[in-house]
């Protein structure tokens, strides 16, 4: 088991265009280049004469651990058959995962009826997990890949519990672009004092014990990713 330290640990997030440094008590890692570190800094590099530095602080709470074996971090990515989920996996592989890390592919399914509980595995789910596992191994040769499949109601709470159970350092989810009507309805509900209605992704960001990042690809013309964390929504990272 890793020793407790008063100083915040670090985790690799090598960005090709943006450099992110995160203050997080749930991350511990050996020193190396292109790290997430204390007093997180995001640097956008576009036109050299107009390069701008943005200072942000990402709040992440959780238990202090080193990913289980002290050799690397555990990163959990929620797997679905959507472009957003695949984009989140691509982002995690290119921006966070190192060869000594372990990536956990989590798939959450609705509970099956009793009469169908003894049926064979869903071939579509198995094919999806197999495909994404291959993607991980091809893009990050040597990385350890684990698959976790769970069933149940309340997808958000299931994801949060799974992240806690596996003691992951980082949870990554794909995020869909919300329609203008959806955003207006959410604001209306919030003004009336109701639940925030943020959905599964927002629930995980607010309740997970580890750092949680929602990822959505920016448009093809602009490029990069929109990143949402506990304290920042749709933060644009060029990549």
Number of strands: 11
CATH topology: Rossmann fold
Mean pLDDT equals 69
> Quick one: CATH class?
Alpha Beta
InterPro entries: Rossmann-like_a/b/a_fold (IPR014729), UspA (IPR006016)
Organism: Gossypium hirsutum (Upland cotton)
Protein name: UspA domain-containing protein
Pfam families: Usp
Describe the structure.
This is UspA domain-containing protein. Residues 74-216 form the UspA domain. InterPro entries: Rossmann-like_a/b/a_fold (IPR014729), UspA (IPR006016). This protein has 239 residues and is of the alpha/beta class. The protein has a single domain, classed as HUPs (Rossmann fold, 3-Layer(aba) Sandwich). Helix content is 26%, strand content 22%. The protein has 5 helices and 11 strands; from the N terminus they run E-E-E-E-E-H-E-H-E-H-E-H-H-E-E-E. A 7-stranded mixed β-sheet has the order 7-6-5-8-9-10-11, with helices on both faces. It has a two-stranded antiparallel ribbon with strand order 1-2. A two-stranded antiparallel sheet has the order 3-4. Helix 1 (83-95) links the parallel strand 5 and strand 6 (102-109). The model is unreliable at 1-68 (pLDDT under 50).
Descriptive labels:
single chain; 239 residues; alpha/beta; Rossmann fold; seven-stranded mixed sheet; two-stranded antiparallel ribbon; 5 helices; globular; disordered N terminus
